[in-house]
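Researcher: Please predict.
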Amino acid sequence: MAGLVLMAFFCLLAYQFVSAQVVNITATVPAPPDTIVSFSGIAYPNAPVTILQNGASFLSTTANAQGDFSVAKNNATAGTYTYTLSATDAQGRSGPSINIITTVASQTTTSVSNIFFGPTIVLSDSSISVGDSVTLSGITSPSSSVAIYVAKNTTTTYTVTANSSGAWTKTFSSELTEGTYSIRARATDPDTSVSQYSTTVTLTVGAPSDPCLSVNHADVNCDGDVDLTDLSTLLSYWRQTNPGNPRVDINADTKVDLYDFSIMMYNWTGPV
């Protein structure tokens, strides 16, 4: 019996010795945290977004259908940089670039967020006459409220709402008097984020077009006939130099005289 107990004891020692030979225990130094810089915000639906670092290509991504974008750079190099962000809408129009100066700290994540590109903006015509219509349009995030600032001597604000694709438009007609206007826009997203301003466009509104431009130059009152009414007007300026009504100086020689009378008679359509 004692022999069996002794044998069991030695077997147990052998088992423990063999088991100890197959256990591997290693120790490693954990990797330091990564250096990361990330960007997120709102551009235009499905817009390509590019980011330059100190003028050199750095990151690019594409916004989703709501205009949201997010992109990050791992293993970034610590330092202070100027980042230039740009985006293009579905019509190929570029919005205003955004410049951001920030310091990227080593072994940390630097997040640049709440970026919101200003709406793209374009005029259907840069110069119109008083009373003519002109349309302002562009793209921003879907369903945003777009404030349009129209400045001449003072600034007037108009508000429109972008559709589900982010497109917005505003047509002006009789609202604009003669002069030169600076126009820009700013959007407020449904989540209440407020965008950068758009670029500024300039609109010139000129005096009403001359209804007599396409009328017979002898038709002084532009009513379609050269008659006694025109003759009476011509005679009221007879022998005047640089007359107050320049149309009576039919040959444009600065004087109202027989030459003008002769031209009127040649074009006469009124009663004989």
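Model: The first strand starts at residue 36 and ends at 42.
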